[in-house]
């Protein structure tokens, strides 16, 4: 990778007789992979045989995800990266992945930021810039750089994690909902543009899940009463499988409705 790659986990034990894994030989790029849904998804994809390129801001969190992947015999490449401060460098992701691995089969943009829950009239420019940068601009740049290798893949898959706030607006959630709505529109447009090829593009709404973002929004909620990232990961990983036929859809994980 052109951006710094901090590590690569080892492969499974030599000589072990195992059945072929459905994503063996494939390369998956996962953002927000240091914790929560992104980390759980990376572990799930690695368990299905994919080599995961893990993107997140925190080196320590990425190393924890890599340790979990290594423990199940999977492989990963770590890419500590700030999607807002280093936004222009996202453009190098696609070409760098092709140079290093010769392919990119799966893109999951899970990284997101909540910002401040505030009246629309009180949104601060710094918060707005951060929200647009992670939730919307990074989506555009990831599509831009990953479109060629994903279209060239035998079964390219792209999934973008969204929120029910797009369809169910709520007071003080305007900045978050607006930037996610923009992301959804961009993704749906792209899905229409690639219709008819091998690439499948979908949105995934995990509903209510015990993540850091959720805790920030609902600090008094007991996380044990709602779905966990590991509960959500298999359904999200299913959208990345070669046999997946859905395209241009928003797939809702049936957790607890608000």
From TrEMBL:
Protein keywords: Oxidoreductase
Family designation: Belongs to the short-chain dehydrogenases/reductases (SDR) family.
Q: Which PANTHER family match?
A: DEHYDROGENASE/REDUCTASE SDR FAMILY MEMBER 7B, SHORT CHAIN DEHYDROGENASE
User: What is the protein's given name?
Assistant: Oxidoreductase
Any one GO molecular-function label of the UniProt entry: oxidoreductase activity
What organism is listed for this UniProt entry? Teichococcus rhizosphaerae
Record bears the keyword Nuclease: no
* UniProt-listed InterPro entries: NAD(P)-bd_dom_sf, SDR_fam
Alphabetical GO CC annotations of the entry are: membrane
A Pfam family it matches: adh_short
Domain of life, per lineage? Bacteria
């Amino acid at each position: 990778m052109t951006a710094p790659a901090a590590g690569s986990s080892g492969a499974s034990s030599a000589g072990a007789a195992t059945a072929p894994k459905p994503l063996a030989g494939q390369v998956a790029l996962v953002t927000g992979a240091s914790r929560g849904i992104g980390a759980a998804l990376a572990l799930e994809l690695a368990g299905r045989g994919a080599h995961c390129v893990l993107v997140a801001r925190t080196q320590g969190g990425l190393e924890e995800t890599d340790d979990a992947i290594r423990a199940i015999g999977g492989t990963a490449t770590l890419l500590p990266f700030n999607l807002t401060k280093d936004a222009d460098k996202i453009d190098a992701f696609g070409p760098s992945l092709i140079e290093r691995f010769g392919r990119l089969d799966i893109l999951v943009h899970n990284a997101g930021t909540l910002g401040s829950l505030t009246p629309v009239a009180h949104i601060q420019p710094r918060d707005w810039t951060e929200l647009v940068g992670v939730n919307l601009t990074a989506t555009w740049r990831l599509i831009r750089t990953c479109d060629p290798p994903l279209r060239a893949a035998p079964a390219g898959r792209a999934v973008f994690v969204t929120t029910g706030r797009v369809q169910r607006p709520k007071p003080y959630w305007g900045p978050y909902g607006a930037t996610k709505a923009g992301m959804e529109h961009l993704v749906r447009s792209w899905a229409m543009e690639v219709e008819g090829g091998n690439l499948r593009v979908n949105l995934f709404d995990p509903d209510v899940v015990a993540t850091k973002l959720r805790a920030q929004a609902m600090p008094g909620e007991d996380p044990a009463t709602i779905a966990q990232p590991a509960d959500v990961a298999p359904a999200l990983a299913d959208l990345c499988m070669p046999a997946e036929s859905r395209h241009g859809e928003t797939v809702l994980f049936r957790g607890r409705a608000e």
